Amino acid sequence: MSVNVNTLREDEYFFGHKACAGCGGALAVRIALKVIGPNAIATIPAGCMSAVGFNFPQLCFKNNAIISTFAGTASMMTGIEAGLKALGKKDYKVVGFAGDGGTADIGIQALSGAIDRNDDVLYICYDNEAYMNTGIQKSSLTPFGARTTTTPAGRNIKGNQKVKKNMFEIVAAHGIRYCATASIGYLQDFMNKVEKAASIKGTSYIHVLAPCPTGWGIKTDECVEVAKEVVDCGLWYLAEYEHGTYRLNRRPREFTDVAHYIRRQDRFKHLSDTEIKEITLQRDAKWQLLDKQYFSK
Amino acid sequence: MTKEFLSGNEAFAYGVKLSRPHVISAYPITPQTTVVEKLATLVEKGELKADFIHVESEHSALSAAIGASAVGARTFTATSSQGLLYMAECLPYAAGGRFPIVMMNANRSTALPWNIYGDQRDSLTLLDSGWIQAYAKDAQEALDLALMSFYIAEDKRVATPVMVNLDGFTLTHTYEAVEVPSDDEAEGFLPDYETDNKLSLEEPKNMAFTAGPDTNTEFKYKEHLGVLAARDVISECEGRFEEYFGRKYTGLVEQYRTEDAEYIVITLGTLYKSVCECVDKLRDRNRKVGCLRLRYLRPFPKTELIEALKGVKAVGVLEKDISFGNEGTVYTNVCSALQQSSFNQPCSNYIAGLGGRDVPLSDIEEIFEDLEREQNGVHFVGLEE
Fold it and tell me: How confident is the prediction for chain B on average, in pLDDT?
């Protein structure tokens, strides 16, 4: 592993776009492309990144990039890879960037198919925990308690009542060559994982948490800090799965206060202390499982 | 060239093989399956060097085909009915991206009620998706259309995907003697696919982008011109085809005994042969009847139709399709063309063969009799009320 802040390419591949200030997703795409380099072939479904980056004639990718159908990120990547292989091309990396809805909801079938075939592609899910492009609607990766425009917080229902689907473990259960979780709050860890995943021959998957200031109700300069805090307070974790083995990249000795993380975001501002307690208990239960899964052997 | 006893699907598969696609991406559905089974066998035997992708759905089948086509690979897929509808989102996507994919569709009824047999509701539902649509009448034409479709689709003036339709079971699963050209004989007919409309490591591009109100009309107009350009390219392609293989095709329409006909039935697909048989029978009784087959529905053979129907007393459109609450889709298209000419004779619509119901010669004879009564409107043939 060689890529770090000093060795990262100076070249930019995703710029001049219209993403909101402080966009975590745009940062994830920008950094991943700088790690992979000019031969990345980016496939991006209908969603935030395509909406902000592909407005003819203002096209914002320096490398090859194409919009797929919403459900078809992975299947289009499969086709691109198959076509290039059949034409005898070498030295390229097909990389997908899809949001949480595009991955865990509408795109999960195509993703599962690509992993099953072990197509030589890297799929990166930038998870901002709701359908942000269409105006903050709930996805299956929206966390418990979050207010979205389709899970409003009122007297009767207080935001989203479901817990987040675990895409990392769903993907790992396919027996994928390599998959990992990451956060744009821990960029070095994310860059390491992109570099590793891009070197894999076969399917690899990275699930990177990427806050959305607009949808989460945080200040634009807080995005990276909040992405750090979600790991530090234990509501997100950094891990890898490779050759059938899970590895935790970071096990905080003591978690920071969940309430602090929750209270700083408008999407959670309706939550009572009891509900925050509930979220804390969910976290503790999750870590009990994680500790068993990762450290029992 | 060898003469072989093949089903429509198998014949089509040989046509695809002769076209040397780089990528085949397909998901199984009755009655399409035997075309992809045949192709998989050809790949396994090493007779066809293509990457065969086992996708997880029809949506993925066409999405993957778009991806492959977007890097300049020659790409084939096949489906039918529910599968075609499931991939529907990707059809205008492929057309708008100007990706010259060839797809075989086994024409089949659409649920509900469930039915696996042939009618044309599936492809006609997607007539406006931007694809060129061809309809084969027999297994030989199926093979030939497979080969010609890549030529037409990939022509730079056209750059539009082509859907070739085979009537479910009556063509896909019916065996006939078919002339199969050898690889050597087909060599040179279809040039390698060359395009600038692709992602390229040498010249990176951003593709499949957004075009707002200020540029959208211009993109759509160009797409429209691409389909229209197929008129000339189909004609050129058929001339070239005849030079290579000796078989002659007649462009967007095919006509049978229409020269002096007073009553003409217009149809598509395999029904043509039944109507021709009926025409012979009625001609023996000195009735001036003829048949016209729409080989292509997009581009629509407007001028050919107007020309062919000059001096005719009445026209019937026989189709396996109904646009609920209106009339048959083919009829709508025919009427629109005729309305733009001086034609003012009766034109009636006959809906038959839905869900695979047989269309016997006696029914077709009745249609010709009906035409002489100068009726307009929509008639369901053989309807039991």
Answer: 97
Please report the residues numbered 98 through 157 in chain A whose beta carbons come closer than 8 angstroms to any beta carbon of chain B: 109-110, 112-113, 116-117
Partner residue opposite B22 with nearest CB, options A86, A112, A116: A86
SS3 content of chain A, % helix, strand, coil (to 5): 40, 20, 40
Mutation to test the B interface, candidates A59, A76, A92, most B Cβ within 10 Å: A76
Q: Read off φ and ψ for residue B104, nearest 5 degrees.
A: -100, 130
List the 182-241 stretch of A: residues with Cβ below 8 A of B: none
What was the pLDDT predicted at B385?
Answer: 79
Vertex B104 angle, CA B265 and B174, to 5°: 65
Which residues 36-75 on chain A approach chain B with CB closer than 8 angstroms?
38-39, 41, 43, 50-51, 53-57, 59-69, 71-72, 74-75
- Placement of tokens 């797809």 in the chain: B103
Query: What is this structure's pTM?
Result: 0.97
**Do the bridges between strand A58-59 and strand A64-68 make them parallel or antiparallel, or are there none, so unpaired?**
unpaired
Q: How far is the C-alpha of A163 from the C-alpha of B225, rounded, in Å? A: 51
Looking at CATH, the fold of the domain delimited by B253-380 is given as: Rossmann fold (3.40.50)
CATH for the B2-245 domain, from 3.40.50.970, 3.30.70.1050, 3.90.215.10, 3.20.20.70: 3.40.50.970
Q: Domain tally for chain A? A: 1
Residue with tokens 């990276």: A224
Question: What are the structure tokens assigned to A122, written together?
Answer: 């890297």
**ipTM reported for the complex, 2 dp:** 0.96
Q: Is the dihedral of CA B251, B253, B254, B259 positive or negative?
A: negative
Whether residue A4 lies inside any domain: the answer is no
Q: For residue A289, what are its two tokens? A: 């499982």
* Domain range annotation of chain B: 2-245, 253-380
Token pair, residue A80, equals 């691109």
CA distance B173 to B170: 6
CB B346 within 8 A of CB B338: no
Residue of A76, A81, A80, A39 lying closest to A61 (CA atoms): A39
Residues of chain A with pLDDT under 50: 297
Evaluate whether B2-245 and B253-380 have a shared fold: yes
Instruction: List the CATH number of the domain containing A230.
Output: 3.40.50.970
Other Cβ atoms closer than 10 A to B127: 20
Which domain covers residue A288, as residue numbers? 24-295
* Residue A100 covered by a domain: yes
pLDDT tens, position by position, B151-193: 999 999 999 999 999 999 999 999 999 999 999 999 999 999 9
pLDDT tens by residue, A128-138 = 999 999 999 99
Which chain A residue shows the shortest CA-CA distance from B70? Answer: A80
Contact B22, B74 (CB under 8 A): yes
Residue pair A78/B53 in contact (Cβ under 8 Å)? The answer is: yes
Residue A241 corresponds to which amino acid?
Y
Query: Are the beta carbons of A61 and B57 separated by less than 8 Å?
Result: no
How far apart are the C-alpha atoms of B290 and B312, rounded to whole Å? 10
CA distances in angstroms from B302 to A47, A175, B123, B161, B179, listed in the order given: 40, 56, 19, 21, 32
* Closest among B156, B295, B164 to B222, alpha carbons compared: B156
Please tell me the distance from the alpha carbon of residue B181 to that of residue B212, in angstroms, as a whole number.
Answer: 47
